[in-house]
Design a protein that fits this description.
Shape: globular
Strand content: under 5%
Distance between the termini: 37 Å
Structural class: mainly alpha
Number of helices: 12
Largest sheet: none
Length: 261
Amino acid sequence: LAASLTGILWRILGQPKPADIVLLWALGALVAMAVLVIGLRPSLELSGLSNWLRETLQGRLHLSLGALALGASLPVGSIAIGAFAGSDVLATLAGGAQLMAPVNTAAALFSIGLLPRAAKISNQRRVQLFSIAGLSVAAGALIWAATLLSLPETLGQALLGQTWESTRSILVALGPQYSIGTMALAGILLLTSLQLTRAVLITSVASAVARVGLYSVVAAMVGTALSISVAETLLLLVGAVAVWLIARRSLATLPRMARDR
């Protein structure tokens, strides 16, 4: 976080090169890792590692393939947007993603923190945990987008340059988009904590395929950054509803003792 804020301040006060910003982020990551290692003092424990890997191999494979599909859908979708709608639209969407990056950071932090906690509580309390966490970050996303909309034009141009005006025009869609996306992530984490990794894989692959197809169609037919942002918002809404319904139905089929355990 400190590295990101330093990078933003550097961008406002000067003209850093992209390589300088990447180096700053890398140094920030190294410092954060060092602080964690010093604070936690982890010890390397190899006994039982092979058994643990065998027992969790299928689930981890499901999660890895799902993450790979979702990750690949973004650059592939960006290529489609650039081909059909042009580089200006792509630059506007990239600027929006940069502005909303703190929401992604918050979502990543609650991903890291909630799964270990969820393993120690009952299934019903897991639902409450992920619901509250998701709603909290979702509300934060809306507040952050509203804050960005209120920025003075000079500050916005200092952050994004010529793309500020076009990027500002899609913030009204990016707020709900990131808010709903956070709830979808919370549902995915709930499914993961319930060890429903096959469902995570299926929904992730379906979302990735739908994203690439939707980007291509909307970019070709409408070709505006706002329309693509709205399309992504609707896609995330469908995905969020799907994962929470899957989790609810899965919990309903469990015996009462298993639900309360």
